[in-house]
Amino acid sequence: MSSEPYLLTPGPLTTSLRTRQAMLRDWGSWDVDFNTITGRIRERLLQIVSASATHECVPLQGSGTFSVEAAIGTLVPRNGHVLVPQNGAYCQRIARICRVLGRRLTTLDYAENTQVLASDIERALAADASITHVALVHCETSTGILNPLEEIAQVVARQGRGLIVDAMSSFGALEIDARRTPFDAVVAASGKCLEGPPGMGFVIARRAQLERSEGNSHSLAMDLYDQWMYMQKTTQWRYTPPTHVVAAFDTAIAQYLEEGGREARHARYALNCQTLIEGMARLGLRSFLPAAIQAPIIVTFYAPDTPRYAFKSFYEAVKSRGYILYPGKLTAVETFRVGCIGQLGARGIAGAVEAVGQVLAEMRAAA
Ligand SMILES: *Cc1c(COP(=O)(O)O)cnc(C)c1O
Fold first, then answer.
1. Are 279 and 316 within 8 A, CB to CB?
2. Rounded CA separation 270/264 (Å)
């Protein structure tokens, strides 16, 4: 068994050897070759969501949450009011960001196995004219549920409010097209469906909104307006960029395009997801969500129904067979999660199911 296991986790995830090899050289942040890479990444990220004509791509150092916080802090004015529909932990994180930043907040609460409804959003916006923005999580990674972005975007646009989308775990795999789906900002990061290493996020922000956002941010380092202006003027990152991550992300995007772009990536993940759910069902493990609302990104499974089960020992036993699983994030039921994304290779999902089967057999025999 290789000492390096497959990561069946939704970022960091398993990257290709070529992506990792791109980190084996140093870059100067002032160097024109490095800044050419930054420019290419920004342009390609806009193209992935067909937003080159209308939006700007502003990259930001840090994990994905840094970019979500920066988007809210920069694009929502200090006297703005954010509606956050909540059906999972990442929605709750956005609500928490609004509280910490002192932006007025209203939440709309759902059970974790229930999609956000566009009609509820429409009613909430119609009832409260002070709401300036809706902040939506596209794929709620805490369960794997898909929220209906397209319908919600239409409702928000019709009501004349702004939409900020946390598309962290969907960008590059699930379709987002700025020509058809109106949004003020889509936020994602290097280490998810584009299969780069973690370390930088980016915000695809509507140019007209970004231009108007000067002075909104409560923070210097997290000010996307300032980051954007500096990058437009100098082609450089405002403060030290994560150079190795940027170079590897560029290589990962090149491989994404070689593979066939979004449709090919989606097809690969959808097959992974189907193989996973069918394989686990054969082992008697049920998934938490019905297929119709399951995104092909990460799957939540009910914990095995055996008295010997504990996530930690299950995790360790599966890890020793070469696969890293992910703990569940639900409060009421015992679950675990398996990611469908990353460079898993031919053996990836089937091998993981086989490893889980072996561990289950041992647990059941010992029970
Ligand atoms: C991964 C992820 C984030 C960002 O999490 P970080 O730990 O900051 O990288 C935000 N939202 C969603 C939906 C995610 O999947």
1. no
2. 10
What's the CA gap between 10 and 362, in Å, rounded?
27
Q: How far apart are CA 194 and CA 220, in angstroms?
A: 28
- 63 within 8 A of 53, measured Cβ to Cβ: no
CA 252 to chain centre: 16
The CA radius of gyration of the chain, in Å to the nearest whole number, is 21
Six-digit token string for 43 = 């342009």
Tens digit of pLDDT for each residue in 30-40?
Answer: 999 999 999 99
Beta bridge partners of 186: 165, 204
Domains within the chain, CATH numbers bracketed: 6-11+262-366 (3.90.1150.10), 17-258 (3.40.640.10)
Rounded CA separation 218/80 (Å): 13
Q: Tell me the C-alpha distance between 102 and 55, whole Å.
A: 26
- Going from the C-alpha of 129 to that of each of 81, 119, 122, 126, 180, the distances in angstroms are 10, 16, 11, 7, 25
Q: Is the peptide bond before 12 cis (omega within 30 degrees of 0)?
A: yes
Q: Is the pLDDT of residue 133 over 60?
A: yes
Under 8 Å between Cβ of 269 and 296: yes
For ligand 1, say whether the CB of 166 is within 6 Å of any of its atoms: yes
What global pTM score does this model have?
Answer: 0.97
Neighbour count for residue 3 (Cβ, 10 Å):
5
Residue nearest to atom 14 of ligand 1 (CA): 168
Q: Which atom of ligand 1 is nearest to the CA of 192?
A: 1
Q: Is 63 in the pocket of ligand 1 (CB under 6 A)?
A: yes
Render pLDDT for 22-32 as a digit per residue (tens, 0 to 9): 999 999 999 99
